[in-house]
Amino acid sequence: LDRPEAGMWVVADGMGGHEAGDFASQLIVERLASVPPSNEINRYVESVQDELWEINRLLTEEAISRGKGTIGSTVVVLLAVGQQYACLWAGDSRAYLLSNGDFKPISRDHSQVEEYVQQGLMTREEAEKHPAANIITRAVGAVENLVVDVEFGELVSGDLFLLCSDGLFKEVPEAE
User: Fold this and answer.
1) What distance, in Å, lies between the first and last C-alpha atoms of the chain?
2) Residues near 88 by Cβ (< 8 Å), separated by ≥ 6?
3) What is the distance of C-alpha 79 from the center of its chain?
4) Which residues lie closer than 8 Å to 32 by C-beta, 6 or more apart?
């Protein structure tokens, strides 16, 4: 979703089989497209969180009605208001910031191997090759009570953001 006039950008990557994943990611995009912009970053974040929680409820109900275990999607959202930004995410879709020549991740994967890395049980390189590398621990539609992480920051002139799914970062090394 690309809404520069509203200061909103979204990447949603569906899961739960092709048809179900497409449904989940499309629902996220359609519903977030209707969230009105705000001139206050905290209010904007709350509106997006509320909508993601509602989408989570709808996807859980849809999975039950289709007889599927999970219909879900990872999501990463970037909001910009004035000189502030907020990044919200659930799953392993990522946000990066390039600021003053420094390229760094904003989000942290909600995955089993990322938890191992954070606990010091394996290196990032080992995590990338681990058999559980594709197991995510959060996604919209995957759990009854969705928890969305949020990171706030100040915008600097010339800042660039990259939002992507694992379709990019599993193919292109972070250094590239």
Assistant:
1) 24
2) 45, 48, 49, 52, 75, 76, 77, 79, 148, 149, 150
3) 12
4) 1, 8, 10, 48, 51, 52, 77
pTM of the model: 0.91
Give the pLDDT confidence of 90-113 residue by residue, as tens digits: 999 999 999 999 999 999 988 877
To 5 degrees, how large is the angle CA 75–CA 81–CA 87?
A: 25
Q: Which helix (H) or strand (E) holds 43?
A: helix 41-66
The enclosing H or E element of 163 equals strand 160-164
Query: 132: number of CA atoms within 13 Å, CB side?
Result: 12
pLDDT-based confidence at residue 129 (cuts at 50, 70, 90): confident
Phi-psi region of 153 (alpha: psi -120 to 50; beta: other; left: phi over 0): beta
In the numeric block, the tokens 């390189």 are attached to 125
